[in-house]
Amino acid sequence: MVAGGGGDDEGIRRRGCTYRRNDFLPEESFQSWWNYVHALCQTPGRFVDRVLTRSADSTELVEMKARSHNEMKKTLNWWDLIWFGLGAVIGAGIFVLTGLEAKNHAGPAVVLSYVVSGVSALLSVFCYTEFAVEIPVAGGSFAYLRVELGDFVAFIAAGNILLEYVIGGAAVARSWTSYFTTLCNRSDTNDFRIVAHDLPEDYRFLDPIAVVVIIGICCLAVLSTKGSSRLNYIASIVHVIVIIFIIIAGLTKADTKNYIDFAPFGPRGVFQASAVLFFAYVGFDAVSTMAEETKNPARDIPIGLVGSMVITTVVYCLLAVTLCLMQPYGSIDEQAPFSVAFEAVGMGWAKYIVAAGALKGMTSVLLVGAVGQARYLTHIARTHMVPPWFAQVDSKTGTPVNATVTMLAATAIIAFFSSLDVLANLLSISTLFIFSLVAMALLVRRYYVSGVTTQANRNKFIAFLFIIITSSIATSIYWSRTDKWTAYVVTAPLWFLGTFGIWLLVPQARDPKLWGVPLVPWLPSLSIAINIFLLGSIDHASFVRFGVWTVIILVYYFFFGLHASYDTAKDSEAKRLEGGTGNELWKVEAAGVATRDPGLGSGNGSYASATAAN
């Protein structure tokens, strides 16, 4: 039995959602009950091994990709990525949450909330871009964290990445129903939902339309990535035209009196709204998962990611200003703010254009999200942290059909039950948490390379990074509990000291080969600080839900994921030591990887000495 991939299934062309006996738990630990009990008894040692083990760039680029049986097709360029970025981001966030947060937390100052969230998202985009250029694989942040922070941290992030996509898709699908109701000239956005009075208030409005929309998106996503790109391109163009119409037509009905009370809820309201509105920027990380299907990652990814995020931020600010100039913030509708605003200023006919544009935008968000989330799950399954069945790529379409269908099935279930406000807050926690980890991983990548960084420099780096993280957490906790500013006199200088210490006293151990984040360590450190600060503005109930989800994924990890990934890693290590299949794969493609990193590692030394972290 081959722990790495299911024995005689290797190399066989797979179609659709077919499965074989060894597709789910092929590893040695699960071949008998005795093996499983023995593996459980070794949990502490295996856990330490996985915590301390870091992957290598070349492992992600060659060995992980080989486990999908078929290659993903390289069909995308920077133009595709920009439109994927716009399609992934501009959707339910701007068309729904703007009204919710303007009315309840920020007032007209919601535009500042979008600026804060946009700056945070842009800093994260820089970090993602460097990783995506250097490690262009479908795993996105999961692969980046495996390389720099190790298997265990990557798994925790993976669980939250999957949660982020499922919740994000569910929230957008429910918003799709709300705007569809408006388009059908219904006054109550719950008219097409089924009311289940026996369920709690946040879960009683059942949404069958959202489920049908997700099924349609699933069919599109499994057929072709390039086809999805073309459809997204067309839908996004229509969407942009509608956005331009909203801004121009809305500003003709502007009333500056609505801006007299600009920030009725004060700074706290602005930042509280920023934390929730971060949801509106979620989706750009899906573009990084398409690096494996990009023709020229070094050129296309920076243009696609950074370009789409800058455009998105400008558009969001203009739309927020337009909405709050059209209506007093207290009169804004929470479910379909732009449609209702046009009706309120005597342009009732325009609400149909707005609703149609919103539907186009949210359809694009769902489509790009479906493409991105499937690629995350595919790469996670390549490590066997989840069953390798999810890693299979269809030989005809070149898409991960199993992962796509599974993720969208989970999304449909959540969308059927859960309300938007519950979903948005929980989504923001997962996203901010992951983005903070990616920024930390970038600092590790630049400043720590095994065999290059001296022990003294390593210790200084760890100490300064600890100061950055703890001062950011302290600032966030203090902000969440009081309006006073006294503690900031301590926490802000500490953050500056930690960042300045890395900049001055720790030499960079690695320079980016193709594209790099500017102003390191300042920008990644600022990204960590802002993301953690925004976490302090999210409600307690959402943290409880986040904690419950984290416990669930940890239980799965210690009973299944840990042992499957451990067996797979050791099997691959044995193959390399014996000069087997894994080593042959490495020989074939090592030259290309070496142009990225002469050490063939990621900060952890040579490929052969990377502890075979898979």
Automatic annotation (TrEMBL):
It is a multi-pass membrane protein. It is found in: Membrane. Keywords: Amino-acid transport, Membrane, Transmembrane, Transmembrane helix, Transport. Residues 515-565 form the Cationic amino acid transporter C-terminal domain. GO terms for cellular component: plasma membrane. It comes from the Eukaryota. The chain crosses the membrane at residues 81-100, 106-128, 149-173, 205-224, 231-251, 271-291, 303-329, 349-372, 401-420, 426-449, 461-479, 485-506, 513-534, 546-566. GO terms for molecular function: L-glutamate transmembrane transporter activity; L-lysine transmembrane transporter activity. Pfam families: AA_permease_2, AA_permease_C. InterPro entries: AA/rel_permease1, CAT_C. Belongs to the amino acid-polyamine-organocation (APC) superfamily. Cationic amino acid transporter (CAT) (TC 2.A.3.3) family. This is Cationic amino acid transporter C-terminal domain-containing protein.
